[in-house]
Specification:
alpha/beta; Rossmann fold; 15 strands; 50% helix; 13% strand; Ferric reductase like transmembrane component-domain-containing protein
Length: 661
């Protein structure tokens, strides 16, 4: 391969930066100035062969790394299919529960008065219901014990052992270990941790697959680390999208996806450091003198390609440090501003630094713009005047109500339980007009859209907001609280709703539902309980009066559409229980809710959450779904109670809704 072939390859932009821009361009300039011959003419055949092998290895490594996103799409497709199957099963179970709740049958366990009507019990009490089994004709068939297979007990034992192992494995995956000591870093569940480790193993395998393990080819290692950073860009921006498509495709909660988003960002920052240091090491320590046009640090660091790379490196590292939980909690507004500015700057620097990165930069930018500009601002964003109500020294409501109209858009067209919106309050200042803060909708959900133009519905909307206090100022929520103390109404902009129906789907598909709220986590659990119990009340009643058939006894009819619904609400102060009007809680209790509200932790300390939730799970007949929304400690306790029950053979599913700054 001569000089012309080396510097004029069809895909010459894929050549190493230092070879193409420093060697080729500088060498050509020297040729023009001096009129000398080919600068490769003095190289030995071994040196020319080394350059050829280096370029081949670079092409091969980038082809291998480019397959990463194909694998990611395949993994997402597998999770989407599994989620679709789960949704299908949940819908079938929900339909069966609805039919069981709507059918009125005569049971032996019902207390019947003289007129033939059931005697109602107090709706605020939890009723323990017995079930009776009536032998069917099949039960009466005589069994010849001598003809039973000798290995039957062995087969049953093997089945029991396999079920036991499966339950223990599920329990292990659900279990959440305690925080890391000293730094008190919260760890996710074992299942989430193993998935993240598997993803990291995939990245490491791509980094080292067919990598020449020679110091003379160390540039390949550095180059592949940089390209590994590039190919993760679309995944990082997809996970950061507020209108989260992966949440709908896979059914994973905000908590799980947000954890994965942060791990992708941390890994990218790590491989960025590896790429940066490795390039410097090769340039100034490992590279042969004949390969480089100049070893001058000034010439190297002032080259445009290197300057763009340093700009991208600094931008993404700053993104990482400003995204840490400690920084977000103290300076959330600054975090929001820097997140937008640094992302745009980083993509621009990356565009100039690495030619091969440009398709990935365009993809990431498209995801960012579609999510932030086209969808969020032009389609879902609405402006309206809302009421402000101060509940206590740290908590207030932003509320409003309206009729849902056929032409309504965004939140004005309704929402579903657990949906959230992004709130902007321009009146607080010029900078606040550019800020959008996420809050869960704390009121009952009217659904989305209208079933017909003749049907009208009214939406009652409220956001339960607790002021967050930074080190130097009161932040957005603190300023809005001060404004609420002096004003009763405010003009706001609402962006949304956003969310996933996954949590409601798994609750609907269970005969027993347990919801646990910690403090403002009631904003998540209250709409879910309201939806479960009110949709059960609206079910049509079905008579089953076939006199020709024997009616088999069923379990005593439960309120709540054939399911038992429990809710535990733990509050820090007694006045926090006023966040939800007592009339609404009484209405839910009347519909069948088993509500437990212990004394506040300020008065009586932390309640026995493990014992309460554990007893509910043990007493449950049939499958149980658990949802918890609260601080990390409460979420971990409830998750591990469910994991322990699964290990002992109980059918339990759990969803965790975690929201934070």
């Amino acid at each position: 391969m001569d000089h012309a072939q080396l510097c004029a390859l069809p895909a010459q932009q894929l050549l190493p930066g230092f070879i193409r821009t420093i060697y080729c361009q500088d060498a050509l300039a020297t040729l023009e100035e001096t009129g000398t011959g080919d600068p490769l003419a003095g190289l030995t055949p071994e040196q020319l062969e080394y350059i050829r092998q280096l370029i081949i290895a670079i092409y091969e490594g980038r082809a291998i790394t480019a397959s990463y996103n194909v694998l990611i799409i395949g993994i997402i497709a597998v999770f989407a299919v599994l989620h679709w199957r789960e949704q299908k099963r949940d819908k079938q179970k929900w339909t069966a529960i609805q039919q069981a709740g709507a059918r009125r049958t005569t049971t032996r366990n019902s207390e019947v008065d003289g007129s033939g009507t059931s005697t109602p019990s107090s709706s605020s009490l939890t009723t323990v219901v017995q079930s009776t089994h009536i032998k069917s004709p099949e039960d009466e068939v005589d069994v010849d014990l001598e003809r039973l297979p000798l290995l039957r007990n062995s087969q049953l034992s093997n089945q029991h052992l396999s079920h036991h192992i499966a339950n223990k494995l599920r329990s292990f995956l659900l279990y959440q270990p305690p925080p890391i000591p000293i730094i008190t870093r919260v760890l996710p569940s074992n299942g989430t941790s193993l998935f993240i480790l598997a993803w990291l193993a995939l990245n490491i395998a791509i980094q080292f697959y067919r990598l020449p393990l020679k110091w003379s080819f160390f540039f390949i290692f550095a180059d592949r680390a940089g390209f590994l950073f590039i190919v993760n860009l679309p995944l990082l921006y997809l996970l950061s999208a507020k209108n989260q498509p992966l949440r709908r495709l896979t059914g994973y909660s905000y908590e799980a996806l947000n954890i994965f988003h942060r791990k992708v960002g941390e890994w990218m920052c790590f491989v960025g450091i590896v790429h940066f240091i490795s390039m410097l090491l090769y340039q100034f320590v490992l590279a042969e003198d004949w390969l480089l046009a100049s070893q001058s640090p000034k010439a190297y660091f002032t080259h445009p390609l290197i300057l763009f790379g340093i700009g991208a490196f600094v931008s993404y590292e700053l993104l990482f440090f400003t995204s840490l939980g400690s920084f977000r909690q103290r300076w959330y507004e600054l975090f929001l501003a820097l997140h937008v500015v640094l992302q745009v700057a980083a993509l621009g620097f990356l565009w100039g630094h690495f030619y091969t990165s440009r398709p990935y930069v365009v993809t990431a930018l498209a995801i960012f713009l579609i999510d932030r500009l086209v969808w969020r601002m032009s389609i879902k964003r609405v402006s309206m005047e809302m009421d402000l109500t101060v509940l206590d020294g740290e908590t207030f409501l932003v509320s409003g109500d309206w009729d849902i109209l056929p032409e309504a858009k965004g939140v004005l067209a309704g929402w579903e339980p657990t949906d959230h919106v992004f709130l902007t309050v321009p009146v607080l200042g010029r900078s606040h007009a550019l800020q959008a803060h996420p809050f869960t909708i704390a009121s009952d959900a009217p659904g989305k859209g209208l079933e017909g133009e003749e049907r009208k519905r009214h939406a009652w909307f409220s956001l339960l907001i607790r002021a967050q206090f930074g080190n130097f100022d009161r932040g957005f929520t603190g300023q809005l609280l001060e404004y609420a103390k002096m004003h009763k109404r405010v003009e706001v902009q609402l962006d949304g709703p956003y969310g996933s129906p996954h949590a409601l789907s798994i609750l609907r598909a269970s005969e027993n539902v347990i919801l646990v709220a910690g403090g403002s986590g009631i904003a998540v659990t209250f709409p879910l309980v309201w939806a479960l119990l009110h949709e059960a009340r609206s079910q049509p009643e079905v008579e089953d009066e076939d006199e020709d058939k024997q009616v088999l006894p069923l379990r005593k009819q439960k309120k709540g559409g054939g399911r038992k619904v429990h809710m535990l609400w733990v509050t820090h102060a007694f006045w926090h229980q006023r966040w939800i009007p007592k009339e609404q809680l009484d209405e839910l209790v009347a519909l069948g809710l088993d509500l437990v509200m212990p004394k506040s932790t300020m008065e009586a300390g932390r309640p026995d959450v493990r014992g309460i939730v554990g007893q509910w799970i043990q007493e449950a007949e049939g499958d149980t779904s658990v949802l918890v929304s609260g601080p990390d400690g409460l979420n971990r306790v409830v998750r591990n109670v469910a994991a322990d029950a699964v290990g002992h053979g109980k059918g339990v599913r759990i969803a965790v809704e975690k929201f934070g700054w």
